Amino acid sequence: MTQTMDAAQTGGKKRLIGGGAQQRLLAFASLIVLLIGFSIASPNFMQTSNMIAILQATSVNGVLAVAATLVIITGGIDLSVGTMMTFTAVMTGVVLTYLGMPLPVGVVTAIATGAFCGLCSGTFVAKMKIPPFIATLGMMLILKGLSLVISGTRPIYFNDTPGFDLISRGSLIGEIIPAVPIPNGVLILFIVAIVASYILSNTVLGRYTFALGSNEEAVRLSGVNTDRWKMAVYALAGGIVGIGGLLIASRLNSAQPALGLGYELEAIAAVVIGGTSLSGGRGTILGTLIGALIMAVLTNGLRVLTVAQEWQTVVTGVIIILAVYADMLRRKKV
């Protein structure tokens, strides 16, 4: 049984090193081409303020994409990351604004709320055997409704919580090096990415995350409690989404209960563009970051070129289709 488990893990590693590396290189090349293309098309694109805006946009979508990466590597999917982000922001607003609790309590609330929601999704998938698509679609609708009910359909503002806006919009690096005003949200994204990458590469949870996506049945036959590990992955992803909720609430200085729908699509697109396979067993956080940057650069560049919002949505949809099709072609070559 141990040999079966080792074979599943070895197969996953080989797939990871193969097509995934090529996809990351292709994604990085695409990012460079987009940057050059938009710079030529508009002189305003490469301005410092616009680059900061791109990084700021990447911080939220990037954190959600990191969370989605963990779930997708297991062979699952999470359609609830957008509304879960909103729900964690609303719960943070309840704790900080309505209950008047200190800022650290609000931070813990956001992460704990996300982890609990992720654990619920993981329980639906692992214990109740509901397909991930349906389980997380249901969770998406539940969290959307709860956000509206708890907030009374009204935004919750953080004007009475000193320092909350600095979580995303402040610049710790800028205070040390004034010439590099990188927002804290970007710094948090990189910290989350580094921690998630370490977990995937150097922990038991990371090893089982890849193994579940490569051959879950082989892992189960080796005596591993696959349900427990799958629930742990969903809970970890939910906690990361909670950090995304903090970032979006801090950037807006409010919890917007109607926000969230659509974020899951951009997150999943970033994951697939970065080389993570929708069939599971292969993926990297670095690739996901590149994918998130591509999505942010594309959206920002189209906006700078004054392309209508509806056409921006069309482009996003086309990218998702092309990214999934590319993933299908990669799987055929493996």
Structure description:
The protein is mostly helical and 334 residues long. It has a single domain, classed as ABC transporter involved in vitamin B12 uptake, BtuC. It is built from 14 helices and two strands; from the N terminus they run ααααααβαααααβααα. Strands 1-2 form a two-stranded antiparallel ribbon. Helix 3 runs parallel beside helix 10 and helix 3 packs antiparallel against helix 11. The longest helix is centred in the C-terminal third of the chain and has 27 residues, at 226-252. Residues 1-19 have low confidence and may be disordered.
Q: What is the annotated CATH architecture?
A: Orthogonal Bundle
Low-pLDDT parts are 1-19
Distance N to C terminus: 25 Å
Instruction: Give the strand line-up of the largest sheet.
Output: 1-2
Would you tell me the structural class of the helices and strands? mainly alpha
Helix percent reads: over 70%
Q: Number of folding domains?
A: 1
> Helical element count?
14
Topology:
Layout: H1 2-17, H2 19-41, H3 48-73, H4 81-98, H5 103-126, H6 132-151, E1 156-157, H7 166-169, H8 172-176, H9 184-202, H10 204-221, H11 226-252, E2 254-255, H12 263-273, H13 285-304, H14 309-333
Question: What are the key terms here?
Answer:
disordered N terminus, 14 helices, ABC transporter involved in vitamin B12 uptake, BtuC, two-stranded antiparallel ribbon, 77% helix, 334 residues, mainly alpha
